[in-house]
Amino acid sequence: MAHRSRAALTALAALGGLVAGFCSLAAAELVSALVRPEAGPVTAVGGAVIDRSPAALKEFAVRHFGTGDKLALELGIVVLLAVFAMAVGVLALHHRRTGSAAVLLFGAVGAVAAVGRPEGSAPDALPSVVGAAVGAGVLFALTGRLTTAPPRHPASGSGSGEAYRAFDRRGFVITAAVATMVSAGAGLLGRRLTSSVQAGATASRHDLVLPVPDSPAPAVPAGTGLNIRGLSPFFTPNKDFYRVDTALVVPRLDAAGWRLRIHGEGVARPLTVGLHDLLRREIIERDITLACVSNEVGGAYIGNARWLGVGLADLLREAGVRPPSAGGPADQLVARSVDGMTIGTPVEAVMDGRDAMLALGMNGEPLPFAHGFPVRMVVPGLYGYVSACKWIEDIELTTFDAYDAYWVRRSWAQQAPVKTESRIDTPRSLASPKPGTVPVAGVAWAQHRGISRVEVRVDGGEWHTARLAAADNRDTWRQWVWEWPATSGRHTIEVRATDGTGATQTGRRAGTVPDGATGLHSVVVDVS
Q1: H/E/C letters for each residue in 159-171?
Q2: Radius of gyration for the alpha carbons in the chain, expressed in angstroms and rounded
Q3: Whole-number Å distance between alpha carbons of 304 and 183
Q4: What Å distances lie between residue 299 and 63, 73, 214, 222, 344, CA to CA?
Q5: Predicted confidence (pLDDT) per residue in 317-375, tens digit
C-alpha cells in the first residue's frame, strides 16, 4: 500500500513538472510574440548551441539530418526540457522551494542565451524570464497539492510500518487542468500574434512586382538540358533549392521597412538604401549556380537559379569604394544578416567584373523567405559561407586582418573559391540496370571558370570522355552523359571534371573543413 502510494505520488510529481514546463513554454511563446519570435527560449538556447558547437558537430548534423538539422535540434531541446521538467517535479516533491528555484535558474539560462545572441538585446530576455516565473509558480502550486496533507501510517498489521503521504489528488488534477488550459490559450494567442505580425511581411512579398530587367540574362542555349531520367534539372525549383544556415526561425521581414547600410574603411559616401531605392536602379538578371561548402563529394547542397537584382559593385563604387588592386584600404566586405550572421567576402572578387549582386528575385518570383527575402547577396564562384548572405541589412568594409566572420571563427577558411566538382545523378548507387547501353549522367561545376570536360571510368579502368550539354555560362553547372556499354556484375563508376582553366578535379579525398570537400564521386551498381 505504502509502495503504491509513493509511486503514485512520484508519478504525479513528474506530471506536475511536465505541466509546469508546458506552462512556462506557453507563456514564453506569448511574450516572444510581443518581443520577437527569435527571443523564445527554445530558439534562443538552440541558437546558442549552434553558435558554440564545433565545426565537426555541425558537419555531422548537416550530413545526417540535411536541411532538417534545425528541426532535429529543436526536437532534441524539447525532449531534454521534458526530462528536466519531470526531474524538477520530483525534486520539488521533496524540496518545494528548491524545485521552483531550479525552474527560475533554467529561465536565467534562456535569458542569457537570448541576450547573448549576435542580434540579441535586453528585451530578448523577457520571454525566458516570464516563462520561468510562470513555470515556477505553477510547479509550486501543484507541489503544494501533493504535500499539504501530513503523513499517516498504514493500518496496523499491514506489515509495512512505513509512513506514506496522503495527498489532494482532486485538487492536483483541477489545478493542473486549469493551468494547462490557460497556458494553451496563451500559447495559441502568442502564435496568432506572431502570425499577425508576420502577415505584413507575407503581404509585402505578395505585393512585390519584380521589374523587367534592364540587363536580362542571355537566352539559355538549346541543348543545355539533356532530358535524361534521374538527371537534375538545369534550373533548380525554389522549393527544392538547398537551404543551409543557422536560423532556427526563418526571418520574415516586411519589405517596406527593410534597409541596408553600407559603411566602413574606404567608404567615402556611406549609403543607406531601401528596397524601392534598389528597384529604381539598373536591374540585372543572371543564371548562377550556388554551392555550400558543407557539400560532401556527390552531395545535394548545390542548386542553379535565375537571379534578379542590382549589381553590388556599382553600389560600392557609388559609395566611393575602391578594390585593393586600385588602392582601396579594405580587402574584406562583411555582410550582416538580421539574425546576426556575418559573412566575409573579398572586395576584389565582388568588384572584379563578375556578376556579384544584391538579389531580390529568384527563378521569376520574389525571393522566398527561406532564401533571404527581401534581399540577399549572390557572388558567383565563391562558396555560400563567404558570399551568400541572406536577410542582409549591413555591409561593412574592413580587412581580413581586422575581423573574422562567423564561420572563420569556427575553423573555416577566410576565403573559399568553389572547387571543381562533379556528381553522378544516374544511375543511383546500388541501382540494378540491365546489361546493354546505360546512360551515366550528372552535373559538373566550377563557377566562374566553367567546365570544359567530364570523364567517366568503370572499375578503375581508362577514362572515357562524356558528352557535355550546351553551356549556359561559366557561372552555372553543366550537365553531361556517357553511354556505358554495361556488362553483368557489380561495378564501380567514377567521374571527374576539368574546368575552363584546364585544371582537373583532384582525386585526393578531403573533408569539407576548412574550405570544401575534394575527391571523386562514385556509385556502385549491380548489372543483372
Answers
A1: CCCCCEECCCHHH
A2: 29
A3: 45
A4: 9, 22, 35, 27, 24
A5: 999 999 999 999 999 999 999 999 999 999 999 999 999 999 999 999 999 999 999 99
